[in-house]
Automatic annotation (TrEMBL):
It comes from Anabas testudineus (Climbing perch). One of its GO terms (cellular component) is extracellular space. This is EF-hand domain-containing protein. PROSITE patterns: EF_HAND_1 (PS00018), EF_HAND_2 (PS50222). InterPro entries: EF-hand-dom_pair (IPR011992), EF_Hand_1_Ca_BS (IPR018247), EF_hand_dom (IPR002048), S100_Ca-bd_sub (IPR013787). The keyword Nucleotide-binding does not apply. Keywords: Calcium, Metal-binding.
Length: 91
């Protein structure tokens, strides 16, 4: 679990390239590259942009670590709901 948390942090830092926020381009790239398996429409630039707008609490057009973490929370929640769904396998 520690390594998973480190990955979340490192992924943000690497994508932000030393800045405090992800710009639109970096966010597009991150979502497409890292979240394609767990989210829909990650190949759609407009869908990802819409997602970014939804996360952008301070409306600065960029994604801060906190806003990024909100997304991670959504994804974790979606995975959790999927896993506890009626067709979850018993492996
Ligand atoms: Ca923001």
């Amino acid at each position: 679990m520690e390594s998973a948390i480190k990955t979340i942090v490192t992924t943000f830092l690497t994508s932000a390239r030393g800045k405090e926020n992800l710009d639109g381009k970096a966010f597009q790239k991150l979502v497409k590259k890292q979240l394609g398996g767990v989210m829909e429409d990650t190949d759609s630039a407009s869908a990802v942009k819409e997602m970014q707008r939804g996360l952008d609490e301070n409306s600065d057009g960029k994604v801060s670590f906190q806003e990024y973490f909100t997304l991670i929370g959504y994804v974790a929640n979606a995975i959790s709901e999927r896993s506890s769904g009626s067709n979850a396998d018993a492996s």
